[in-house]
């Protein structure tokens, strides 16, 4: 029988005895009480128990419990217990402040990195007007001279690698009797005329540039140039960087001369080279090509030692000058873009910088989140502690 | 609890309802004034409050811990703590606030006892087990029969209260011994009313079962079946 009573029933009985039921609950309970003798019995027993407990006498204090100043001073000397969570408020504030300071530092550092990062080791964007001015100056200067010289070269070596002072790690030619090829990257300005005219202009410019470079290298025709033209000798660092830009180039430090070095140049350039001082360059291509190029042994004579290896484009052999011009134009136009967008054919020159930017961005976001959360927590804990 | 003020109208005549209400009002106002004065550091004002509530506090402590010495310590600790933390009292029932303090003091005393168990009140038989019978509580002193029976019954009830869990004991002492309603008990214990209601029902059920073991001590009208 007792098993039929639930804890809820005893709660109702207790609340009914204490007159803590609402009118509706009380009516329902009384209706149920009339129909359930077991409930009546339990109500009777719980009621008697309640009366027994309430029959306990009120005790009188055995003495007065007056509080004296001595008692209060003793009790107040005890440290007041502080909620453990409230102690975290200063720590949270410190964490928030540190995170904010770090956020400012990281943001400033990231700004500096972004501002000082090299976009590409390409020539600075040369405005066409400047080029035209240079060209006009070159033409006017050439006109004053008696010798029929070529027009001022439009094709220029990258100014970044044309350092006037030879670095310590400069690749020296012919030290060990083995010709060391030096790579010069030529950049072409964006086309200002039609493609055919530009091809012709590029051929002439390539020719004049090669001649100028070689003459300048030989120190013989420097006076014929309208302005000092640098045939740069690449440093190892520059060479490595430029080699990294080329998808098909082989590492420079392990240059091996093939028995039959070839010059892979456009036909127009090759013709010019044939008429001019032959510049023989050992090619880095593993397989000799069948192109009609002048070949010779690198150690034939000191003058024939190839000082330079001209590459009009960062690719292997090109079938026609038009192709090379077009490719050069694309490459030059891309490199001359002020926004610094890398061309699609050239791999990203600064993957590490991009990665660093993402890392810095992630750190900044993390620090901001930490600063905000810690600050809010510190404020909430401080408010709760103040209550 | 009597009137705290000398100007209070004594409740000598139950017919004068207005006088009783006036006494309560004067007492309430006087209590508030005493509390405010005690908050300002007036120890004498606080001791007047002690004088008004010490019986209630001591009775509650004794019902909670079941020992005079422990109840005495808990009562003294309660008033000292109340004076030191009087600024945390933000109105409401001062009685419930005091009961909360004394309840916590009793919990501390009960926890201390559990850490350092003392000799049980129940005597041991030859086998070393506690004697469940209440005959050992019979006072051998020569007293009138009714007084003896009454004291035995009180001891039996207190014994059953002592056997309750602390939370159940607190609920039943507040409601049935101190006469608080559910909301006051909720305020004094810091628990919701539903919790008080549930604990009280369970406590009464256990008390009923416990008191069945003392049927011979119970008055005829209170015999449980």
Number of helices of chain A: 11
Number of discrete domains of chain A: 3
Q: What class do helices, strands and sheet pairing of chain A give?
A: mainly alpha
The most extensive contact between chains is:
A-B, 36 and 49 residues
Strand content of chain B: under 5%
**Cα end-to-end separation of chain A:** 53 Å
The CATH H-level homologous superfamily of the largest domain in chain B: RNA polymerase sigma factor, region 2, helix turn helix motif
Q: Approximately what portion of the residues of chain A adopt beta-strand conformation?
A: under 5%
Beta-strand segment tally of chain B: 0
Order of helices and strands of chain A: HHHHHHEEHHHEHH
Topology overview:
The complex is a heterodimer of chains A (387) and B (225).
Chain A: H1 7-17, H2 23-35, H3 37-54, H4 69-76, H5 88-116, H6 128-144, E1 156-157, E2 183-187, H7 195-218, H8 236-245, H9 267-275, E3 309-311, H10 321-335, H11 351-386
Parallel strand pairs in A: 2-3
Antiparallel strand pairs in A: 1-2
Helix pairs in contact in A: 1-3, 5-11, 7-9, 7-10
Chain B: H1 17-39, H2 43-65, H3 68-84, H4 94-115, H5 145-162, H6 166-177, H7 182-189, H8 193-211
Helix pairs in contact in B: 1-2, 2-3, 2-4, 3-4, 4-7, 5-8, 6-7, 6-8, 7-8
Short note summarizing the structure:
Chain A has 387 residues and is an all-alpha fold. Chain A has helices at residues 7-17, 23-35, 37-54, 69-76, 88-116, 128-144, 195-218, 236-245, 267-275, 321-335, 351-386, and strands at residues 156-157, 183-187, 309-311.
How is this structure best described in words?
The complex is a heterodimer of chains A (387) and B (225). By secondary structure, chain A is mainly α. Chain A folds into three domains: 2-54, no CATH class; 90-117 and 362-387; 128-248 and 263-276 and 303-349, no CATH class. In chain A, 49% of the residues lie in helices and 3% in strands. In chain A, helix 1 (7-17) packs across helix 3. The longest helix of chain A has 36 residues, at 351-386. Chain B is an all-alpha fold. Chain B folds into two domains: 21-116, Rna Polymerase Sigma Factor, Chain: A (Orthogonal Bundle); 136-225, Orthogonal Bundle (Arc Repressor Mutant, subunit A), CATH 1.10.10.10. In chain B, 63% of the residues lie in helices and 0% in strands. Chain B has helices spanning 17-39, 43-65, 68-84, 94-115, 145-162, 166-177, 182-189, 193-211. Chain B is elongated and about 60 Å long.
